[in-house]
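In response to a reviewer's request, we include the raw inputs and outputs for one of the modeled complexes. The four entities were modeled together in a single run.
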Amino acid sequence: MHAFDILGDPVRRRILELLASGERSAGELAAVVGSEFGISQPAVSQHLKVLRDNGFATVRAEGTRRLYAVDAEPLRQVDEWLDPYRRFWTQRLDALATELARGRRERRDADPTTNGKEHP
Amino acid sequence: MHAFDILGDPVRRRILELLASGERSAGELAAVVGSEFGISQPAVSQHLKVLRDNGFATVRAEGTRRLYAVDAEPLRQVDEWLDPYRRFWTQRLDALATELARGRRERRDADPTTNGKEHP
DNA sequence: TGCTTATATAAGGTGCGACGTATATTGTCG
DNA sequence: CGACAATATACGTCGCACCTTATATAAGCA
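The model returned the following structure tokens for the whole complex.
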């Protein structure tokens, strides 16, 4: 199953967002996400299972609690998938930088609004 | 509709992959993707519509052809969404570098596989 | 041991997204 | 204009992902 299939679900994305700042118990996640999306504890638990089964999260038992944490490996793969497209926006940024430089140069060379003379 | 929902579909991902290397006509895309996934021309056309409607692709008419191109803006958003997680793997790479350095040091100091003794 | 809390699994219902077939639209060429 | 080519839209069907309710598992505690 491809990583994007997992991230396609908003509930799972939200869970990962919560995990981004550190470990959370299944209960905490069920409470927060459950109330935000209006879904039940089992529903959240099922999403946690999907995240586990696909390597997006790891679990650690602490007593009766299950503490979840992000495993970023699949996210890294998503990041890799994006590689071929990065040039599209970095390129645009470069063009913007060039454009800005050009604008600056022209302003320096002949800017009537500051202190240059129009026709010496 | 969230960007990840669009990327969740393998056909749409494939289309974007093909567009990464430049413009393609709807017909080319339908031929390649259609045969790869075993789906019809209308099916591909519907996916193209989804990509259009959600800003992942732009179209330009050339005669009776429709030439599609990537619009990377939504992908840039996906890239942004990944930001909070980047530290996980960059951090891991740092740790790996550290680990490798440590391993190198230990090997230099006392490496049993080359000339050390197991039980002196 | 029995009761409670935390979490997961089972089983079943439902909505929606992706597909195919058929057809409409638009452009080209003779 | 009429025929053909390229592409899009209409519409009905179906599978599956996600949900709910009910229940199982397992740990903590009186």
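As requested, we also summarize the result in words. The domain at 3-71 of chain A is CATH 1.10.10.10 (Arc Repressor Mutant, subunit A). Residues 109-120 of chain A have pLDDT under 50 and may be disordered.
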